[in-house]
Amino acid sequence: MATVTRRQRARAAVPANVGSPPALVEVRSPAAVWWRTYRHHLRLLRNGAIAWIVGLAGIGWGVAATFEMRHGSPEELAVLRDMVGIPAFEALMGRYVRPDTVEGLVLSRWGWFAILAAVWGMLAAAKLFRGAEESGHLEPLRAGAIGPRGLLTSGLAALYTTHVIFALAIGVGHTVGGMDPMTSWATGAAMALLTAAFATGVGLTSQLASTRRRAVGVVGAALGVTLVVRVVAAASATPEWMWWTTPFGWIGYLHEVDQARGYVFLGLGLLLATLIVLALGTTRRDLHAGLLGGGEDVSDPDARPVRSQLALAVRLTAGPARTWGLIVGAMVLIFGLLARDFADAAADLPTTVAMVEASLGWSGLDTAAGIVAWSFLFAVLLLAVFAAGQTVAIREEEATWRIEHLLVRPVSRVRWLVTRIVVAAVAVVVIALVAGVLAWIATTLVGTPITLMEGLRAAINIVPVALLALGIGIAVFGLAPRLTAPLTYGLVIGAFLLDFVGGLLELPEPVLDLSPFRHLAAVPAAGMNVRAALVMLAVAAGALVIGTIGFRRRDLQEA
Amino acid sequence: MPSETPVVRFEDTSKHFGEVIALDRLNLEVASGEIVGLLGPNGAGKTTTLRTLLGLIKPTSGRAEIFGIDAWREPVAAHGKLAYIPGEFHVWPQLTGAQILDLLGAVSGGYDPALRDELVQRFNFDPSKKGRSYSKGNRQKIAVIAALMTRTPLLVMDEPSSGLDPLMEATFQDCLREAKARGQTILLSSHILSEVEAVCDRVAVLRQGVLVEYGTLAELRHLHAHTVEATYEGDPPDLAGVPGIEDVYVRDGVIRLQVTGSTDPLLKALATAHVPSIQMREPSLEELFHAYYDESADASAGAAG
Fold first, then answer.
1. What's this model's pTM, rounded to 2 decimal places?
2. What is the ipTM of this complex?
3. 3-class SS of residue B288
4. Cβ contact (<8 Å) for A303 and B86?
């Protein structure tokens, strides 16, 4: 048996400083430290960037490459040409310019993909500039030989590196896909600049706001406002210059026929340069604080008690539900207010509308009810993303081990999870119903009312898709918890894109039918697809049960 | 009493993470009213042991029981009788300290508000702040207060005083003694050996997932070498053939050595010479711990070699 003496011998064996001690390590050159930090940032961004770039540039390429195949006949080209006259489309996609050309059609799609690119830019920047700080990884970097400005510039440089690759992927991909090279490269450059502007925006607000949520929230709100402006710009009575008030309007002028690319790049370049200067000028802040308010001393002695896990679930869900409710509600409200204008403009082109509707499998775009239904097709995506976000939030409770505080007490795993699921499901229904009521109010205000019941039916129509997202997310959480965020968000976005561009890519019907979004009827312009809704609810229920059982049976897992 | 159901019982409990054996056939019982310290270097399996006991992870084989209740199969029933202090307490950033204490008390099935207020006072804790603004030490205070304010029969703690300053550490040890006086049973993993030495009745030493020693401190000390220092005048004593001694130093009137097992042969040998002074010292817990730790290092080196 070993004895304490062994330890004493071990201590004596600790090498003494014999001879001259090793030289102290000098601080590395600032440039070398900056370079290492840049590479560290790039590593953090790598996986997400690959997914976004491959996804977005790949779909753009698909639209270009299948143009001839899909729209070869004169009739089909006529349908595309006449989309210019339907403001409901322009409200969501941006300006339609010569959509009967491959360049025009691809650019119109980028009017929509640009929103996703902006979201990518925001989330990636938030990860670098706030996420690392909130999870405690920033202190070791800040304690090293790099200052706050160096951290910001190395982070921005890493972000811009991914944006340059994004531009290259679009430029090469679209050229190969059959698009005019100049337009391909212009599209790539414009999308990269737009993404960079939103990323830099978060770089700026990360200095001003004290939390990641607020930093993203401010830029997210700016994104929301620009999109609302775009919807208004699409209305027939709005003057042309309205398109020029936001970056999402500018990118509608990339087509060669507009002869306005110089202005587009001037606007995007100036916006980006301004944001860079502002961000660099505001790097003097404390750790875990923002220039516009500290995060340190948040005292709330009168906070309402939270006395049950139900109360906790409500508390944790209420914030995101309010935010997403606001976004969904605002979108439906704006469309409702413009429903009359959009419907009237479409009614002037009855033949075109009939052809477009036939090619899209849609109906009623020349009525207020049809426009409301159109807006709910996009509201459902937002609602499904909210539902997916709830499963990610549930996983977050486990990944951070906060769940442990409850589960080491007399709270069963099943009860905890079911409580969170029920609260999330109720939030989904409430957000949908509020949107339905807002659609009724908005259309009533402009004198082309849908009934309250029609508004509520439109709301109920989109709930099963969101509950399906919740169910799938919980199943992933129960079986493969570490994949909850990428798989759930990926499935929701993937299913939406499958429905949205899958037809353009000539995918077989059974594949397209996999997307739940494809089975949504144009309620209230058409009747609800009850069978599809029941199937979705049944799958959701099954997935919830599988996820709950999986969670009950597995180990808790850290991040 | 032997017939009494142990408060905590591990029966051949193993936990594997893929190829890694984090816990290997652990057999351990903690009787009512005992304070048991769980010792071991990082990666020895202490946290895995406690998480298995709490039903947060499923044993690969064997079982862990709390008051005779299977912790994995019936966690809710088992958890009604315990409170837990994790080594790192992650808070809900948007809730205040008071809200978190209130919530944890409520889901525990009730607590003593007067005791909570007293603990808040003793630990000098400000409960009005939002979770995100607390330092590590203050977050740990929430965990300690939330566990102690419920007065459950069993307290399970995983490095409970990590992050506490020395004053709060002393307060915490006072609380442990009071809990013991109230009859609460405590299973405590700690790196602070003075804390374990000061409050624990028994110590379990884990090494690479295996329980290598379990007993009272006196029993553990008995198994290990005592340090002997003596002086002599005239001829040195003849220590050749004395069993259990090593590291013997005899020169210039000074004797230093280590002795394991019975000291009787040594004392008889020393008595053959003129020995005016002799001192015998038991190993401290720190020395015991390092002895086990060094054995572990040696074993690893041997395995690697």
1. 0.84
2. 0.83
3. helix
4. no
